[in-house]
Specification:
The protein is mostly helical. The protein contains 5 helices and no strands. It is flat, with a radius of gyration of 15 Å. The N and C termini lie far apart (46 Å).
Amino acid sequence: MNYLDYLKYWKQPKYVKYIKYPHCLAMIDLLQRKNFRDILKHPGAVQTIEEQQILHWIHYNKNRIESQQP
């Protein structure tokens, strides 16, 4: 838990600009919640979260590239 608290420094403006995948910041917050850590104990929970993140990255990047084209 101390290490998760330490990682919060990435939310500071001088560091956040280096974050490529902002989901990691939300994940740091979620991992500090006991109920979220308990959910991760259930089979398939981690896999579901991972799949959802990958889908978001795929579609976010695709949509972002399309919106930047003239």
